[in-house]
Specification:
Low-confidence stretches: none
Number of helices: 7
Radius of gyration: 16 Å
Strand order of the largest sheet: 1-4-3-2
Distance between the termini: 32 Å
Helix content: 40-55%
Strand content: 15-25%
Structural class: alpha/beta
Length: about 180
């Protein structure tokens, strides 16, 4: 049985994200992750994944997402670009018959305002479609104190879990604090 029997093609949604990670762990393989710069890299990645019958992880970061918005003068360009990436992938990934985990590259604590805007957009998208815009977000809290990292992680985990999303958290911790982090939510 392959991954395509576990989850539908398209952007991986809700509990399906957990199923993908459990399947890859059980079957001892990784999903390739592509940091995209333009629609051509998205399309080429989808085509390659389709030909090789593979799932795919697509990530976008704050700077590269601006490339998907052009020279818009109103609103946050990086947020608009990130929304465009998501819409593009929601439209095409099903046609290519590829399961896609759509995520951000690690967002540092200085760019959490961008994450707030993405989550707000995701909530609005969820209200219309009953699933989130992205599969997950990734945040890097490794420069924060342990206590502050837990506080921030908990805040964002609560927000994204309401719309069925995952959250990857990079945090500077030791073994004992890992157990506490796993029991956050």
């Amino acid at each position: 049985m392959g991954l395509s029997q576990i989850v539908k093609s398209g952007v991986v949604k809700g509990s399906s994200l957990h199923k993908v990670f459990e399947y890859t762990k059980k079957n001892n393989f990784a999903i390739p992750c592509i940091s995209v710069l333009n629609t051509e890299t998205i399309n080429a990645s989808l085509e390659s994944a389709s030909k090789s019958n593979s799932a795919l992880m697509i990530q976008v970061n704050n700077e590269n997402s601006k490339l998907f918005a052009g020279k818009v003068s109103k609103g946050d360009v990086s947020t608009l670009g990130a929304i465009n990436v998501a819409n593009h992938l929601h439209t095409l990934s099903s046609s290519y018959k590829v399961p896609v985990i759509l995520t951000t590259d690690y967002i540092s604590s200085v760019n959490l305002d961008w994450l707030d805007l993405l989550i707000d957009a995701g909530i609005e998208y969820y209200k219309l479609h009953t699933y989130a815009l992205y599969s997950s977000y990734s945040i890097d809290l490794s420069n924060e104190s342990y206590e502050e990292s837990l506080k921030i992680a908990k805040k964002y985990l609560k927000r994204v879990s309401k719309i069925g999303m995952g959250l990857e958290i990079k945090i500077g911790i030791n073994y004992a604090s890992t157990i506490e982090l796993c029991n956050l939510y």
